[in-house]
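[Automated response] Your request has been received and processed.

Submitted sequence:
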Amino acid sequence: MKLKIVFCLCIFLKLLDVLTTYFLVYKFGPEGEMNPVVKYTIEQLGLTAAMIFNYFASIALCYWVFKRKIFYALFIIFVGFLAVVINNFYAIAQMMI
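Generated structure:
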């Protein structure tokens, strides 16, 4: 049961990550993205395609870990997604001032 909850929370947090990253990059340009891999993907695919790719690649990783029932690995992914979402909201708040 805990594994399913963490998996669902990972999906939700990744969606928040993609939406907040999309907002930051759309509103403030490429300097809104700090992750060099995501920044490169945005340059190669465009913002929308890169965000869709980012979302599905991350969810595929979560699903792979979920199917193997590795709770602690999924929990670490969850904590990482949570940290990114908190950072994105902080960046949005700083840029809006």
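Summary generated for your ticket: The chain has four helices and no strands. Residues 2-96 form one domain.
If you did not submit this request, please reply to this message.
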